[in-house]
Amino acid sequence: MEKYIKENFGKFLSIMYFTVWYAVFFPLRVHAYVDPSVMTYAIQAVAGAVIALGAFFSVYWRRLSRRLRNKLPEKDINSESDLLYFDDPVSHQRQTIGESHDTAASEKRDRHKTSFRKKYLSDMIPALYLSVAGCFMVLVNEPVLLYLSNVDDFWFDLYVVIGTMIKVFIPAVLFCMIGFTICWLIYDRLYQIVFAGASVIYLCFYIQSNFLAGSLPLMDGSVIDWGLYEAEKLQSAVLWLTVSLVFILLIRFLHMKRFTRIMKKLSVLITTVLTISLLVTAVQNGGFIRKSFHVISTENEYTMSTDKNFVVFVLDAVDSRVFHEMLDTHPEYTEMFEDFSYFPDTVGSYAYTAYAIPQILTGAWTKKEKPFREFYPEALKSSPLFSRLKQDNYRMGLYEDSLMIDQDQISDFENIIPISGEVRSLPEFARMMLIIALFKELPYQLKQFTFPQTGHFYYMEGSGDYQKFSYNNTNFYESLSENEIILTDEPCFRFIHIEGAHVPFRYDKNVNVIDSSEGTYEKNIEAAMTITDTYLKKLKAAGVYDNSAIIIMSDHGYHYDNPDRWGRHNPVFMVKGVQEKHPFAVSDVPLSYDDLQEIYASLLDGKNSEHMTHWKAGDKRERYFMHFVKNSDFTECVVRGFAGSTEALIPTGVTYGSKNHSDKEEISDEE
Questions:
Q1: How far is CA 199 from CA 30, 192, 194, 204, 259, in A?
Q2: What is the Cα–Cα distance from 664 to 495, expressed in whole angstroms?
Q3: Whose CA is closest to 457, among 122, 185, 164?
């Protein structure tokens, strides 16, 4: 049987090869935050093919070389014994010099020791292979793949992930080996059961994370309805039962020793494929590029000028359509935003924060022509807003926790602190990485118990004598309530981005954290309005409200009535110029975030909200917006008509992504 397995191992690898290729040609659509790109499947397929061909030629080369050796004449080897003999003249028998009188007993003890050691090594070597392969897959491969698939969403770089997880990987392998050894010493059959169970878990984890991760929910803070995943739960159950049954049959007919040999080779194969896949993905995604480490602190957050100030207050995910409706049920908002002009016909830029904030700050659009972490710092350096602020000697503070900035520009902002890039808590960082790996690899029945909060990574950044800025509504509101405005005679610019109405829906009107089952989108907006009102009252109490140009806006709208996330193009946008005084006003001017740099310049020139742009009420214009879902391609859309209408958002047929393409003829410049 062993000969049969060896002769057919190449066929087994071929089956694995075609299985992987099947996954490439018939992939599942993946939208999960932690899921690798589809290219990973192709990389694994290529790596598997190369390894399979290598194993195939290796098997047949050994057969050929063995046949050649059998046909060649054997060498005449004159081997001499290490023992010396002499003939005893009395007994006429040959005696051996140095031979123990108790040779039989000694040989028996040696055989016993050799047998024990040989059996232990024979059993533990497959366990070592499985332990290394399993720990590598869970503690190294998945965390690294998570990073490479979302490289622009984390403050840390690849070297932080690898360095941290290697420190966990080595003890984990030792722990597994100690467990296998204890089971082996207690009872041989117990060891076999544990080894078989670990083998089932290993293979199921691999298949679960690589081929059954197509419906993982997006990790954006939304409450997940796990009742919608009944089909996925059935798939998981079938997978685990099938693998368990197959392994039981293999052990029954091939016996345990041969089964351990198969698992040893399989673990080597999978580990090699995963390693090659990681290396290629790292090169493709620029994973080896080191990041600039910095911390967004709260330094001078409440320092304002007695001369002039420019404030941009960003409330995440506040949709203008919902806010417009809430004005009827919340008349206090008109008093709260006295002196402001509200522009309900405003079109944003991108559907999600990561791309929207850079466009708001710089006016630059990216169509994925280059890696995002190259685009963002370059756009910051060429920002018309920052150039003007530096020219006018403004003290600049950027309170935005997802900022990507080059080291040589950090000094332009008084609250950004360069750091070394170390992790605050190694155990907590490793725990979060392990949770994310298990979230992807566990069957769907257990995923809900390991659903990770990826935002926790933000609070593990660096160490030092500073207070880190918090985007969280509760943290910002507490800080705002506890601190007073500090006055200076230098002009100040403050860009503050907070959680606003973003999911999860966990706030009431007074910014108290409530159970998400009781929360609503409207309650989150009410909490955002309470925070904004408190901030404006602080400015008024300090006497710096009138000499401040203030923009209250959102980075994007919200798909409150569209489960496919369509319609995030209409963010809330309100403006008050320096010394601007009037009742709350609603303006019909059609605006786009493409107009922001013009608006910034006008406000810095002292113009009010009525004269900050050349667009007028009643103007007809087409405004562009990029719709996408997390890491998917950008779908270019044009808004024709009132921005508050979902039907006005029309795809142009142009898509930007890894392969920029158009579904129709190139649109003319006039269009």
A1: 27, 10, 9, 8, 10
A2: 40
A3: 164
CA dist list (Å): 55 to 7, 17, 135, 257, 290? 11, 12, 24, 21, 37
Rg of the chain in Å (alpha carbons): 33
Within its chain, how far is the Cα of 9 from the centroid? 37
Which residues 6+ apart lie within 8 Å of 277 measured at CB? 40, 43, 44, 47
* CA–CA dist 499, 399 (Å, integer): 12
405-462: pLDDT as tens digits? 988 899 999 999 888 777 777 788 888 888 878 888 888 888 777 766 655 666 666 5
Please give the single-letter amino acid code of residue 448. Q
**Cα 196 from Cα 193, distance rounded (Å):** 5
Specify whether the CB–CB gap between 503 and 560 falls below 8 A.
no
Across the chain, mean pLDDT equals 82
DSSP class per residue in 250-264: HHHHHHHHHHHHHHH
Predicted confidence at residue 220, as pLDDT, reads: 57
Length of the chain: 671
Place of tokens 């006497």: 543
With beta carbons less than 8 A apart as the criterion, state whether 304 and 492 touch: yes
Q: Tens of pLDDT along 83-121?
A: 444 455 555 555 554 444 555 555 555 555 557 778 888
477 vs 30, higher pLDDT: 477
* C-alpha to C-alpha distance for 185 and 9, rounded to whole angstroms: 32
Q: Residues 520-555: pLDDT tens digits?
A: 999 999 999 999 999 999 999 999 999 999 999 999
- The answer to whether the Cα torsion of 185, 189, 195, 197 is positive or negative is negative
Give the integer Cα–Cα distance in Å for 418 and 395: 18
Cα distance between residue 380 and residue 495, in whole Å: 14
Q: Please, are residues 366 and 372 in contact by the beta-carbon 8 Å criterion? A: yes
**Pairwise CA distance, residues 108 & 445, whole Å:** 54
DSSP single-letter state for residue 618: T
Contact 394, 603 (CB under 8 A): no
Residue 590 to residue 618: CA distance in whole angstroms = 8
Q: Which helix (H) or strand (E) holds 652?
A: strand 649-656
Burial state string for 281-301 with b = 16 or more CB within 10 A and e = fewer than 16: bbeebbbeeebbbbbbbbbbb
Q: How far is the C-alpha of 140 from the C-alpha of 145, rounded, in Å?
A: 8
Distance CA 27, CA 43 (A): 13
Is the pLDDT score of 663 beyond 50? no
b/e per residue 623-651 (b: at least 16 CB within 10 A): bbbbbbbbbebbbbbbbeeebbeeebbee
Neighbours of 127 (CB within 10 A): 23
- The two counts, helices (H) then strands (E), for the chain are 17, 19
Nearest to 247, CA basis, from 179, 211, 193: 193
